[in-house]
Amino acid sequence: MRVLMFGWEFPPHISGGLGTASYGLTKGMASLENIEVLFVVPKAWGDEDQTIVRLIGANRVPVAFKKIHFKGFKKGIEKIEIFSKVIPYTDPEDFWKKAGEEIAGYKLLVKTNSQGTVDFSGRYGSNLMEEIYKYSVVASVIAAENEFDIIHAHDWLAYPAGIAAMQISGKPLVIHVHATDFDRSGGNVNPDVYKIEKEGMDAASKIITVSNLTRNIVVNRYGIDPSKVETVYNAVEPLDNEDIHFEKGFNEKVVTFLGRITLQKGPEYFIEAAYKVLQRMGNVRFVMAGSGDMMERMIRRAAALKITDRFHFPGFLRGDDVFRMLAMSDVYVMPSVSEPFGISPLEAMQSNVPVIISKQSGVAEILTHAVKLDFWDIDAMSDAIYGILNYPALSSLFIKNGKEEVIRLKWENSARYVKEIYEEVLLNN
Amino acid sequence: MSNLKNNKAICLYFQVHQPFRLKRYRFFNLGSDHYYYDDFNNESIMRKVAEKCYLPANEVLLKLISKHKDKFKVAFSISGIALNQFRLYAPEVLDSFKKLAETGMVEFLGETFSHSLASLKNREEFENQVIRHSSMMKEFFGVDPVTFRNTELIYSDEIGEWVSEMGFKAVLAEGAKHILGWKSPNFLYCNAANPRLKVLLRNFVLSDDIAFRFANKDWSEWPLTADKYATWIKKLSTEGELVNIFIDYETFGEHNWKETGIFDFLEHLPGAVMKKTPFKFMTPAEVAENLQPVSAINVNTPISWADEERDVTAWMGNELQVAAIDKLYSLYDRVKECDDESIKKNWDYLQTSDHFYYMATKFFSDGVVHKYFNPYESPYDAFLNYMNVLSDFEILLKRAFPVHEEDKIQQLEWELDIKEEKIKTLSKEIEKLKGTPVHRKGEAISGSGGGKPKETPPPEKAAAPKKESKTKKETAASDAKKPVGKAVKAAASSGKATKTVAPSGSAKKTAASEAKKSAGKATKTAGSSGSAKKTLRK
User: Residue A259 is part of a domain; what is its CATH number?
Assistant: First the structure.
């Protein structure tokens, strides 16, 4: 079975959970038999690990003057050849002009460079919508040029690409919901994003969600038939740098928040809980590692609470710094307001750190050896932090049982479930 | 009573207990909020159980006792905690138990006041609680318990010995398979160390048929009737003398609701047993008096009636439980000295075994019962809350009884005295050393008594093993400086040069002791050790 998979990021160029999860799943699939994955990202940098998967960068696919063969757009029009549907253009003004007149037709517009390929930033910039569009155009070229049985698109950024590939190839589409705009926006859903998400979900033969929490959102907020949606939990890569040993330069406890400092992650609840703990004990420091649009507000709040001497903002951590931070930590807190899954607590548990997670996270559905509480329950949060720091038996049992628990969460198992879903889709196709 | 001799006996015992559940206690209340209990929950659960179980079941028993004159008997063990809850929330339950007591057909067993695990941690506290519980039985029901049943039927040879020494004639225990081996629980046994203490073992199959399986529609024997049950008992008459049915009283009406027919079962059971079997209802005390023990039963490690394992891991099976219990009983000495009523009360209530049961992580495999009435979402949560409460209790204890601060000061003064003594003896030695021709510089001296160089720790450590004596030594050293001799020079230089030589402390000691014997010899030894070092240096 060959899978054409559309993602947005691939290690080492990842900025969040999406890249980690889609890579982990791909790696899990590589360990299964009879399955081969072609992984497409908008931008391949050239230094990605391709031992487990063939990686295609959309930025390296020549698209200019390509003939695209629509094999199964609709029943009855199979094998109708449509020429020159990709019209390369070089002048932006030209694009807007043409875009207006071509909307009704089938022509796809995309800007190419001198090599006849499309440029991608590979980031989540202000021209994200344009990137998504360009990605879908190149996807149809890739779909036309490769053999595969099924299409798998990770998250909304890749849904249009998946749909395009589906339309070109006539192969079934599976989409993988790692998050919805309801999670990201805290309720103020961007209608453009919602539209793309909804289209992807409608077009897909099967929808994979990373938790039942997300599954419910997909069913209730997007009006999708529940029988079409299945939950496959994420897993975590075994730690390969377990030796990272980091000595704290001080003899104080460390409580860590690690993630984007945005509404979705609930940073303000962490600060309030920190304040409560600091009222009671002195030998503890709080760290809010990450960056995001709420960072300034959080710094101001910490200052207003007069806890800045004990509350630190080291910024966004990369690579080994993350593990160093975890090695220093005595408690890891993920107070997310809405977290479709949340791999980071699993990484903390691997690093022998007890975790406190919100019940509003998908990972709470599978973890037993973690403190689970409502994100808004600052009392419970501070109490749990205090308890773990002050009652050594609690901390040591969390570490011991947590490690055992997290070892059992293997990508291979997730991949196996996904494969079963593929087989089911192909059977019904 | 002789007419009971050589008879077969059936013994019913019901456990009555409700814990004082703790309220949600956050750490930021430490030191300011000293009330720990969830009154609403405790009251509503007690009211509920009283109405569904205690009152109707007592009524049935009362009826049965008057119906089967002198032929139907039961035993109760009611924890002191439960009695306190009756007084607070359901006094009519207490009255109905008193009525049962007045019939004379009911035996009240002894147990720990707090339904505690003290028998596993602290004998003194255990005995203290048993005595208090017994006096409570006397006060409420006018009886002195002669049969003992420990919390959750926890029993070992040692616990048996303790209660035997306290005057109990019999004890109840679990008929655990791993203890019995090929033996049958359907006989009377005695304690391994003290044969005068009779041991009644629970028939867990017949007990659990009522307690756990009665309402289970998937059970092949469902529905269970009193007649059917009586035929099972009858079957045992060919091979056994004693059938012990030990169950939680809440089995009637609470674990099994009225609608399951459990009360009808109870109502018809005595008649069916009397009609169909040769077994006669006896209280545990009567059993102990009238049946002959067939052998001693060895129980080296504590057993209980809980879970598949029948051990104490339901309360002390994980690190959380062990930490919490250890912490609790570490406060014992302090509590013992205090006579503050509220502290004593908290001490009692915090010992209740249920608190530790909630912390069991076993429920991941062995579920249902552990979750019953469990106010916590997880064992971690239970531990967290309990430890917060316990921390506050400790604060309270320390605040109310700062005697221990004084104790500390006394301790320190006592230590100071000892050190003073040491300094005195050391100065005397130095005085003596002064009189000898050999003088040494304390800090730098090295060399073994026998003159052989040895591997030793760095001299600076050895030179001042005791801080307090250091100053004295230093003065001694400065005194010794004046009459500097060859040996001192040699020793000083060798001390600097080689770290791998004997500690000056021992050298001094030997020098001192040798000085006592004869000054001349000491000189010789010192000289030789000095020369030994010289060679080393080369």
Answer: 3.40.50.2000
